[in-house]
Amino acid sequence: MKNANHFAEVSANPFRTEKTSAQHERRRNLRKPLQLPVYCQKVAAQDGRLLSGNTVNISPCGVLVRMQGSTLRDGELVSVEMAAPGGEGLLEQVGRFSSYARVVRIDDRDAGLNNGKQIALEFCESPRFSF
Questions:
Q1: Which residues contact 38 (CB under 8 A, 6 or more apart)?
Q2: Residuewise pLDDT in 10s, the chain (131 residues)
Q3: All domains in the chain, ordered by first residue
Q4: In a designed cystine with 117, which of 40, 104, 108, 121 is the match (CB 3.0 to 4.6 A)?
């Protein structure tokens, strides 16, 4: 019966299209899986504590990191530094990416399994590369 109803809906509106998974996606940019060491520090923090972890994935607009014992909260501003992987051409020499970012989401569902929290950071400016 479901197929008959679906057929009736589609034939009643020939311009109706099914939403693809890409249309359900809210991100502006594709994320690429990448594991690099990452260091964060709260902007204007009194203690100057450096937080470390590893990237899970990255895009031009942000990065998802996994950190143990992080004290970051939604909306906080952080300075971010990541080691760039060595490669060919311009990236033959190992360098660092740095930027400022805002915490947009914290997922601690797996934190109890000794995996740490996943923290989504949105870059406030394009990351800078330095040697």
A1: 52, 53, 54, 55, 63, 65, 80, 81, 82
A2: 444 444 444 444 433 444 444 444 565 778 899 999 999 999 988 888 899 999 999 999 999 999 988 889 999 999 999 987 766 665 566 788 999 999 999 998 766 656 789 999 999 999 988 87
A3: 26-130 (2.40.10.220)
A4: 108
